[in-house]
Amino acid sequence: INEDPVIHEKLLQGFIGDAIADNCPSIEARKLRALGELNNLRDYALKQGYESSVVREFVTSDAEKAKFKAEAAGWLKAKGAEPGNSEAFCKIGEEEIAKESLVGYLLRSNK
C-alpha cells in the first residue's frame, strides 16, 4: 500500500498542507475537506484490493507518518520553507491555493 503512487501522492499533499497550516498564521487547514479526501483515498485503496485492516494499519502507523512528514518537509524546503520562516510557508500556501492544487484545496487563507 505504501508503494501505490496515487495513495502516496495524495497523502503527501495532505502532509504538505498540514505543515503549511501549522507554520503560517494566515492559513488554516480545511479539516472537513481533508476528512473527505481521506475517505475517498480509503475507498480507492479498498477498490485496489487492500483489506480494511491493512488500510487502517497504514494510516495509523507512526513510522509511515514520520516518513511522510519528512518527505513533506523536504518538498517544502526545496521551495524555500523551513521551520521558523512563516513568511515562506505562507507564500507557498497562497501559491498552492491560487493554483487550485490538492494542497491548496485543503487550505483556507485568512487574508
Key descriptive features of the protein:
two-stranded antiparallel ribbon; mainly alpha; 111 residues
Summed up, the helix count is 6
Computed CA radius of gyration, to the nearest angstrom? 14 Å
Average pLDDT, all residues: 96
What characteristic shape results from the CA principal axes? globular
By DSSP, the count of extended strands is 2
Strand arrangement, major sheet: 1-2
Fraction of residues in helices?
over 70%
**Share of residues in strands:** 5-15%
Query: What is the string of SSEs from the N terminus onward?
Result: HEHHHHHE
Q: Biggest sheet, open or closed, and with what strands and sense?
A: 2 strands, antiparallel
Helical/strand content category? mainly alpha
Contiguous uncertain segments of 5+ residues = none
Written overview of the protein:
There is one protein chain. The chain is mostly helical and 111 residues long. Strands 1-2 form a two-stranded antiparallel ribbon. The relative contact order is 0.22. The mean pLDDT is 96.
